Amino acid sequence: MLQNLYRGIVAATTLFVTVLLAASLLNRAHPAFDSLSHFRMHLLAATTVALAIAALSSLKRITFVATAGVVAALAASWPYLPGLGPPGNQPASSIGHTLRIVDFNTRFDNRKTGLARDVILAADPDVIILQEVTDTPAALMNLLRDGYPFQIRCEGSAIGGAAVISRLPLAGDDAIRCFDTPFLSAISIDVAGNPLTVASYHAHWPWPHSQHRWIDELSGIFSVLPHPLIIGGDFNATPWSEGVQRIARLSDTLPVTGLRPSWLTPALPGSLRASIGLPIDHLLVSKEIVTLEARTLPFAGSDHLPVFYRVLLR
């Protein structure tokens, strides 16, 4: 009797996590499923463990169903699985120009902006893409002004605004693009005589909040940003989510591949970020740009980690 009870619990648990995993694949059907999809990697891990236990318990049908769910989820998430990102050891090419970029949600109440400055400067970026930037003297973009004199932060909000700062010069008189929102800004920088558009974006939270409606409102802007184009930011969404993928379709870009957990609630120890954190800070690049390296940087006072990229503009 106890064995039957055990098998019943294993079967029910395995089916439950498999159903949740399958629902995460329906992220284009409704924003609620898209919110669930942010936890797809966690559900993949849970379903894999559950199906292993089901297999050991000789629950063949349950094991088959769970295996099918895992395979489907792996296929849907393939470009963004661990180990599939840019290798990082690719040398700079003689064809094109290499750029070093850091993207970072500074957190508006970050009291360690000096630490953030040091972490970012150690990566020696050419361009820095920031979110939740305030206009206080201790704000990160002000601490970096001497080395990065070309700066844009068009409008602020209660939690700061989106900013791009560069040590490369602006490309032309209309290089700064401000929009009717504090959560999106863009500049055009001169890369060896060629213009490159770099945008900073900070998304609203996903369903039941207004992320999907916010993308609707900004769709006209994303679709006309000039190429070559880089959009960096805190998307509050995983790279396989419909939220990120829709912006990629609108802007004719692709998210950089691989899995880089960059955010974890401050209620949990930061040491868990690499294992259970969410990858919600991304770089979207147009087809003229090849990503050579992508990795998170050390803690910099925020609940987000800075993310470093090395890209080639062809």
Task: Annotate the secondary structure layout.
Elements: H1 2-24, H2 31-37, H3 40-56, H4 60-76, E1 97-105, H5 113-122, E2 127-133, H6 140-143, E3 150-152, E4 161-166, E5 176-178, E6 184-191, E7 194-202, H7 211-222, E8 229-234, H8 242-251, E9 254-255, H9 273-276, E10 281-285, E11 289-296, E12 307-313
Parallel strand pairs: 1-2, 7-8
Antiparallel strand pairs: 1-12, 2-4, 3-4, 5-6, 6-7, 8-10, 9-10, 11-12
Keywords for this structure?
single chain, 314 residues, alpha+beta, Deoxyribonuclease I, Chain A, 2 domains, six-stranded mixed sheet, transmembrane, Endo/exonuclease/phosphatase, Endo/exonu/phosph_ase_sf, exonuclease, Endonuclease/exonuclease/phosphatase family protein
